[in-house]
Design a protein that fits this description.
OB fold (Dihydrolipoamide Acetyltransferase, E2P), alpha+beta, 98 residues, globular
Length: 98
């Protein structure tokens, strides 16, 4: 019984951390180009640790095209990216403080 309670408590704690956004790994970058029609964004970015990718310039899809309305070419940003349905996708964007 004691082991079951301990296992249950561990599962609850892990679920709480998984659901609160602590997993978002933000990377700094600068927007080089926006392709609103294609729902794509080109970013010159630092190392993407979550995707095991070195610093480079690359094109990403966006999870929500509204993200493209909030930023412009040349903007310094922090963003989170993931592989969604096999495509590298920006899932969150926030402006970098100046």
């Amino acid at each position: 019984m004691r082991i079951m309670k301990s296992t249950f408590l561990s599962a609850v704690i892990l679920a709480a951390f998984a659901g609160n956004g602590l997993g978002a790994d933000y990377t700094k970058g600068v927007i080089k180009k926006i392709d609103a029609k294609g729902k794509k964004i080109t970013i010159v970015h630092e190392e993407l640790k979550s995707l095991d990718m070195p610093a480079m310039t690359m094109v990403f899809f966006t999870a929500d095209e509204a993200m493209l309305d909030a930023v412009g070419e040349g903007d310094a940003i922090e963003f989170a990216a993931d592989r969604i349905e096999g495509k590298l996708t920006v899932t969150e964007i926030k402006a970098q403080p100046e």
